[in-house]
Structures are given as structure tokens and as C-alpha cells.
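Morning, I've got a small favour to ask if you have a moment. I owe you a coffee for this, so here goes:

…
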Amino acid sequence: MPKSAHVKDYIRTIVDFPHEGILFRDVTTLFADPRGFRMAIDQMLHPYAGTRIDKVVGLEARGFILGGAIAHQLSVGFVPIRKKGKLPGTTINQEYKLEYGEAIVELHDDAIQPGEQVLVVDDLLATGGTAEAGIRLIERLGGEIVSCSFIIDLPDLGGREKLEIMGMDVQVLCEFEGL
């Protein structure tokens, strides 16, 4: 892939995946390129220079890749929010709506301490359902959300607006129109 000054240029689009009519924004090409991946992590970190962050929470599954790298750069702990049944310890859970049906995410009940400053990260913000569920879990444990950071926003699906109505600061590196 040619060198680029924009994260968006490292993201490929797969037509009709996983269903006909969907334009899937594939960040694996960004992750595979060392310059692109470094650029994305640096740009995701930039808004928080000088901000107290105690934990980085990554949303399943690509949020784990980003969250681990960001937590490492900040020298803070990383916490995964996983699909139901994937965490081994005692958990709390939150249901959320999908396009067709519902899903449940979980968080270890001791992963966030009251008053901890938390940065939530994921690769893509679409409808905001997974992020909203994650935020609710963190807040139930007394964590305070500093911000939510994503590589991609799909503004036509309304996720950013949903999170901002909840009072969240939302940072994105790029946007793609459509589904």
C-alpha cells in the first residue's frame, strides 16, 4: 500500500459483506501496515495529551487491538468488554439491540474501580449500540468516561449523535458515508 498522510487511505472497502448492500470498512489493512497502524494509534492518543486516564476499555473485538496499543502508550491498564460467556470471572452484563435482534456484552465486576477515568476505544462507530452498552457497564462500576475514540464513524447510522446525547465526548479519525 502506498504511504499516505491519512488513516482513511489505509482502510479498504469490501462490497456486499457481510450482506448484499453493505460496504464493509475493513481496518485489517490499516492494522497490517506499520506506518498506518502507528499513525492511527498516535492520532487516537493526541486529543488526550495531559489528560488523566486510568484505564483503556476496548470493545470486542478490534477494540482490543487498538485498546491494548493505546493502553501500552499511556502506561495504564487495559480492560476488555466481551460478548456474553467469554470472560472467566464474575461479570456484569448489558443487553443492547442489533439490527436484527439483541446481544449481550460483559465486563468483569472488578475491572473498573469507582472514580477511575476511562477511555473507550473501538474501530468503528455505526449505530452506537455496543458503545452505549459498554458505557453503561463502566458507569455501573463507578467509572467515569473521559471520551470514546474510534477510527471510523458512519454518520448515516447515528451512533455519534446517540453517544453525544448521553453526554459523551466522541473522537473519530475519519468518516465514511453510507452503510
Observations:
- Helices lie at 28-32, 34-45, 62-74, 129-140, 159-165.
- The CA atoms of residues 89 and 108 lie 6 Å apart.
- The mean pLDDT is 95.
